[in-house]
Amino acid sequence: MNKVVNLYKPKGPTSFDMVQRVKGILGVKKAGHIGTLDPEAEGMLPICLDRSTRIIPFLTAQFKVYEAEMTLGSATDTQDATGTVIAEGSAEGINESILRATLKEFEGPQNQIPPMYSAKKKNGIPLYKLARSGITIDRNPVPIHVYSIDLIDKNADRASISVQCSSGTYIRTLCNDIGERMGCFAHMSRLIRTQVGIFKRETSITLETLERAVKDGNVSSVLMHQDDALRFLPSVTIKNEFSKLLINGIAMNRKFIESISEPVRTEALYRAIGEDGRLLAIVESKYNEKDFAAVEPETVVFKIKRVLI
Question: Which of 111, 135, 194, 241 yields a CA-CA distance of 20 to 30 A from 200?
Answer without folding.
Answer: 111
